[in-house]
Design goal:
The chain is an alpha+beta fold. It has helices at residues 52-61, 82-101, 114-134, and strands spanning 16-21, 37-43, 71-76.
Length: 141
Amino acid sequence: MSASKNNLIAVPQEEIAMRTVRSGGPGGQSVNKTASKVELRWSITDSNTFSPEQKNILLQNLKNRINSDGELVLHCESERSQKQNKALAYELLCTLVTKALHIPKKRITTKPSKASIKKREQNKKHQSLKKEHRKSPTLED
């Protein structure tokens, strides 16, 4: 299982605890016999891969997904195959970590150009004249 898809940040497999349990999803009678649901647990604070600053960012941005033990817990039961569910759970983990560590670029505010200001004023004038011509003539005219 690699995380090279769309430049995802990979979490080492050694730091992840995967457990399989019985799934309630599709599969008919075999659902009661096979453990295809995957539960993935990753302790951010015990990770050796990320710096303390990155760990703080992850803890802050993923706080709604972290349990009281400081573990990020993910469940995947969308597929009937345990192998596919493991791959999807790992990919979801890598996606979450990548999005949490992404720092958006700051927007640089700009002034509108003189030409755009002039064009906007002309459009407003044109609209007001159009609406003015729609009115019925008054007795004063």
